[in-house]
Predict the 3D structure of the following.
Amino acid sequence: MSTLPEADELAAEWQDFRLLYPLYSALGREFVIDLPPCSELEAGIESATQESVEQARQWFVDMDQRIQVHQLRQFLQTTTLTSEDGLRAMLQHYLNKLQRSSSDRDKIDFLLVQFFSHCAPSRLEDDDVEIGYVAQVLEPIFSTGDFSAPDWLAPLDEYLRAANDCRSLNDLLTKGILEKGRKLKAGSGEKYFVPGAMVAFTRFSFLMRRVFFRLMHQDLNSILDGLRELEVRGVSTLDCRRAQFSVDEPIARLRMICHSWKVMFHAEYSSGQPLRMLVDLRAVINAALARTPSSASGKQVSPRTRAAAAGIHSSASDSESPEFVVSSDSPDLKDDGSA
């Protein structure tokens, strides 16, 4: 129980609301959430009465009920309004709820990874992301508690080892690793909110994102290289019904779709249907490369393209190019652990 006098508690709560309000308001505008603004927070009043604080509380309750997890993910990874203080205030806002829904848990889970990603060095090596280090970064959120990983979360390390052995998104999907992690999290109930469990899940999600983005970029690079090579060979359309596109899908449109996927998956790496489409599109292009003759000009197919057609991971090509560059004609996307 806080030792602050009631007036000081209200003042501190009001300052947190003022910090969070611009984020919530911008999110509401972006996703057209139908809720009138909170008048006194809108006016920027520095101090407020108890009645004003209670009205603001209700406004945030109403917003929380309307905000979907995928909207929070997308917004926080594209807005320039986020800060360490803002992320901490939002985390504590959800953690301080007396009753937390599964949606609240998923939002907390995402926010913990965002906070860790924001505070950790941008070039942090995977081997350095140990439980102790993650706990140290997250300590301002929890203040006290046992940060050691509970025994029931031992499978998380097994899932990470299996994910690191994957050589494509298809491998990751086939092994069901993302689903196993989500199932363990969903089944944890109130045990999720033990500090040690939240630290362990944060580490798992951060490292799993890195695996996902490595594989996603590898698949997108292979697709874009394959599309470029097919154009050289005189192919302008592909039968992409396997990937839920048309029988005569223009290559130019497929390239544009790939670039849009890059942005979409950055916000929601667990998307099921589009992720399956990406995997199937790579298979379509690999098959097209295998059956389409080389161009009459005698242009040699690059080793990277041959590897794409065969479904082989080329470590040499990865090491020769900047990390996580999707293609030469698209913006870079760094693996900073944010998804």
Remarks:
- Confidence is low (pLDDT under 50) at residues 307-339.
